[in-house]
Design brief:
The protein has one domain: 3 Solenoid (Pectate Lyase C-like). Helices cover 10% and strands 45% of the residues. It is built from four helices and 33 strands. The longest helix has 13 residues, at 38-50. The two termini are 27 Å apart.
Length: 424
């Protein structure tokens, strides 16, 4: 194992889930009924917080609710056999809250479960979070949001404060979003039918996400998005997502430059990832930078890419110190790794992306279209990209342009490959 992996063990030791007083606050005791639990859940959370913390318990059954806002020192426990089924009525997520939409700051409808500025919060249990997303409600907004999003991008570039920006009417909200929180635990729950991105911590520190099952394949339904977060462990999760499975982000364009908060010190291990685009994705909203990412002992089946680094001259950002080890891939529709600075707007932008020190070690791929597509710029090549002890079976040659790629004990289609030109 290379020296960088010692940092993965440091992250695991440093990231510790919060602890809570052993006091339960069952939501029926605070007025929650199954066909309308919103007020009862809010009252239980308030009572729990006021008493110094504890566990708000959702008992077995299907509980219909609107937005849930957590408070410090509160664990929301969704019991075995319990389902929180969220409203699809947009007005149930008002008033607007401080959030991000695809890397841009905005006041928008509340995420379904939200916390802002909290310390010691958790969502636990083996029950289900059901966003009821479908093409009859939230998902249809995917085809209706371009005007709103383009206006938001323009407002960001002109420096309009987020509180004065117009979010429009068709920007979907994330499912679970702790925002600017410290000591976060999300454990055991099953997440289905999300309106948009599913678990989306923003500006958070000390985050544990473990043993979560995610199955929501709507449009742009990323599984887990870490945005401008530090010290995160994701372990034992099973994700079937309508877009990227686990995506690391750090803000977009002008907002990313202004906030300038990277995502860093992230350990991902023992996860099963499938459908649709990147299994592990860095970007495309990475203007604030991403560094110190460790992925080990994961199984991948079905998406386009195992590792997908997305940036260009509009997004910019620096990606460095990324390590993947002991990854098993049964099938990919495109490359094992894609890092292409010419994607999207390509060179037509004011920022320069940088990618350096990326290693894949012990990665076995049963089938992929290509091994790699690596395309940097002449003035900003991809630096120190390494494949070590890898075995790939692929259908087509690779593309390597403006990239310093090294190979050590790499086999492609049963043949040892020692020179980068042999994989093209």
């Amino acid at each position: 194992m290379t020296p960088g992996w010692s940092e993965a063990d440091r992250i695991r030791a440093d990231v510790r889930p919060p602890e809570f007083p052993a006091v339960d606050f069952p939501i029926p005791s605070y007025g929650a009924v199954q066909n309308d639990a919103t007020a009862g859940i809010a009252a239980a959370i308030q009572a729990c917080s006021d008493s110094g913390g504890g566990r708000v318990v959702v008992p077995p059954g299907v509980w219909y609710t609107g937005a849930i806002h957590l408070r410090s020192h509160v664990e929301l426990h969704v019991s075995a056999g319990a389902t929180l089924r969220f409203s699809t009525e947009p007005s149930d997520y008002l008033p607007v809250v401080e959030t991000r939409y695809e890397g841009l700051e905005v006041l928008n409808r509340s995420p379904l479960i939200y916390a802002n500025g909290c310390t010691d919060i958790a969502i636990t249990g083996t029950g289900t979070l059901d966003g009821q997303g479908s093409w009859d409600n939230w998902w249809s907004w995917f085809h209706e949001c371009d005007e709103d999003f383009n206006r938001l991008r323009e407002q960001s570039w002109f420096g309009i404060p987020s509180q004065d920006r117009d979010a429009g009417r068709r920007l979907r909200s994330s499912f679970v979003q702790p925002y600017n929180c410290t000591n976060v635990l999300i454990e055991g729950v099953t997440v289905v039918r999300s309106p948009f991105w599913q678990i989306h911590p923003v500006l958070c520190r000390n985050v544990t996400i473990r043993d979560v099952v995610i199955d929501s394949q709507g449009p742009n339904n990323d599984g887990i998005d870490l945005e401008s977060c530090r010290s995160v462990v994701i372990s034992g999760c099973t994700i079937e997502a309508g877009d990227d499975c686990i995506a690391l982000k750090s803000g977009r364009e002008a907002d990313g430059l202004r906030v300038n908060m990277p995502t860093e010190d992230v350990l991902i291990e023992d996860c099963t990832l499938g459908v649709k685009y990147g299994a592990i994705t860095l970007g495309s909203d990475l203007t604030g930078g991403i560094r110190n990412v460790y992925v080990r002992n994961c199984r991948i089946n079905g998406p386009y890419f195992a590792l997908y680094i997305k940036t260009n001259a509009v997004r910019g950002g620096c990606v460095e110190n990324v390590y993947l080890s002991d990854i098993t891939v049964s099938s990919l529709r495109k490359e094992v790794v894609q890092c292409n600075f010419c994607r999207g707007e390509g060179k037509d932008g004011p920022l320069t992306p940088y990618v350096r020190n990326v290693e894949l070690r012990g990665v076995k791929v049963e089938r992929a279209r290509n091994a790699v597509l690596l395309r940097g710029y002449r003035h900003s090549p991809i630096e120190d990209f390494r494949l070590v002890d890898c075995d790939f079976t692929v259908d087509q040659p690779s593309t390597v342009v403006h990239t310093a790629l090294s190979l050590d004990n790499v086999t492609i289609n049963g043949h040892p490959v020692k020179d980068v030109h042999q994989i093209r």
